[in-house]
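the two lines:
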Amino acid sequence: MTIVANILGELFAPTTAAYALAAIGLNIHFGMTGLMNMGQAGFMLLGAYGFAITQMHGANLFSSVLFALLLAAVYALLLGIPTLKLGPDYLAMVTLAAAEIVRIVGRSTSMTNITGGSAGIAPQDFTTRFEDLSPLPDGTSTFLIWTYNNNIANSWWLRIVAWVLVALCAFLCWRWFRSPWGRVLKGIREDENAIRSLGKSVTKYKMQALIVGGLFGALAGVVFVLPRSLNPDSLGRTVTFYTWTILLLGGAATIMGPILGSCVLWVLLTAVKETMRVTIPSTVISSNQIEALGWIIVGVALMLLVIFRPQGILGNKKELAFNG
Amino acid sequence: MAENNKAPVDAAQRHDVGAAPAASVREPFYDIARWGTKPPEGEDLISTAYGDKVTRDLAFVENKPGVHKPDPILVADGVVRRFGGMTAVDVDHFEIERHGITALIGPNGAGKTTFFNLMTGFDVPNTGSWHFDGKDMQHVHPEQVARGGMVRTFQLTKVMSRLTVLDNMLLGAPDQPGEGMFRSLFPGMWRRKERENREKAEALLERFLLIKKKDDFAGSLSGGQRKLLEMARALMCDPKLVMLDEPMAGVNPALKQSLLDHIISLREDGTTVLFVEHDINMVRHIADWVTVMAEGRIVAEGQPKTVMDDPAVVDAYLGAHADVDLGGDSVLEGLEERS
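prediction for all of em together
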């Protein structure tokens, strides 16, 4: 029973929501505008730092979130100015490198006073004000098969806030998708020069898309660190690649794709790991190996998906027929 | 032929009955595409006002390269573009007559497309200045050029494959407030404009025989249909000057005829047309003025009927010794004399 609860609990876990948010941001970059952002983790880490550090120094919640968003916007601007006029591959390289720079600077010993160095920032330093805001009573609650703490760490309160955020971002994304603004972005994805010849300033639109997607990434970072400590190494390259996996799994350029992708990936992964833990005795495979093996099995499943359903779960097969 | 005649006769009847004046003037131009190139015998419904005016004005213009024209819309001076050691474009002076259909011809590699790119801001010349409708266009970005009323199409057709034909068209519409990031979130601010644009797009698609395809992905169109779509899209913003880069390349002969009619009807809508083309017959058929480029320079200009006789044009296409048999005795004699 606990296994089933654990597995299905991933369906609405805060981490799942964080990845869904990050993938929605990436969807605006890649699915709508065709920007190859290989450093979504950089936006997330910067958002997380912006939130946690201001919280540590006693700012209120609202201004902390605002500061996190501001940092991400400035970061997007800095990345965009030199690269958006060049080809897509340059943006990919620059975002990948910049995300690593953010992480390495964050974990360097000289920054220990501000970012806590490689140890990061402990949860009690930045989550208390968020937890105090909760209207729920103290203690734990059980809903159907799931029992979680009401307010502390991996809580019901965080789940509610995280999924409200996801719904809000998905709604914004849906509005944008069906608007003339979204149409211009999709046009840029298809052919930049054609859009330019029709009198739209392509660089401005690309910059807007980069910033908006980055803001969603920063929010994802905040949600990501709230149930745990802020550790720069937990928001490294792999997070970017998981986000890409989620986006392609769910289907790029769809509204619900990133959310569905995130749910499917984490439920699948937990299911594989938990099943192995129960069925295979630890003398044959140790728990460390199960962790790695879980990723291998999910990796193979994803490969099969990409081969047999390249447009993702929700994608439109017809769109794939015309490559760029 | 009978079917061809039907539409204009209807239009004529409407004309007689006395429909609203604006509509009756507007209608025939839009019907022109269904007519074939000429109105049915005995009928003279198409307005040829702009065509007549341009013909009249250009009749007195001397047939020589870089000549001044009575009412130019685009004036280029000393435009030079070099790629390394190669001079792709070197135009001393060039004018395009307003409301006219000007053809730009020349052998492959003559610099026609590069000249297009320079004029529309897609490429930057080494030196030179050019004015469009009195405005200086140096250092102007391509998007601003387009907003100024000079819209181009591409030799290698650019359509947004994974958008529908209608969306492609709507992207061509100017001043849609919904294209702002924040305003796009409030459909009330842009829905009315969207509806107007949609009506206009559908009218244009009808004219270009693409209306049945409007909900298909543009990527599913044939090469010729893409050319049509690109041209229709360029017309969404009512440009003052359209620059068509090989509008007929890869278009089948039947479709070609209707494209020609479209171009003629553009002139009567008050649009100036500049086009690059290799098909000399077509050039002779619709152009008011022909400019010939070779090796980056303008080597001849003139009336379509006479410009082909210009020795410079013959040289440009066939080489300076076109009438000499290179294996003949005359060549050998020349060599002997020199040695």
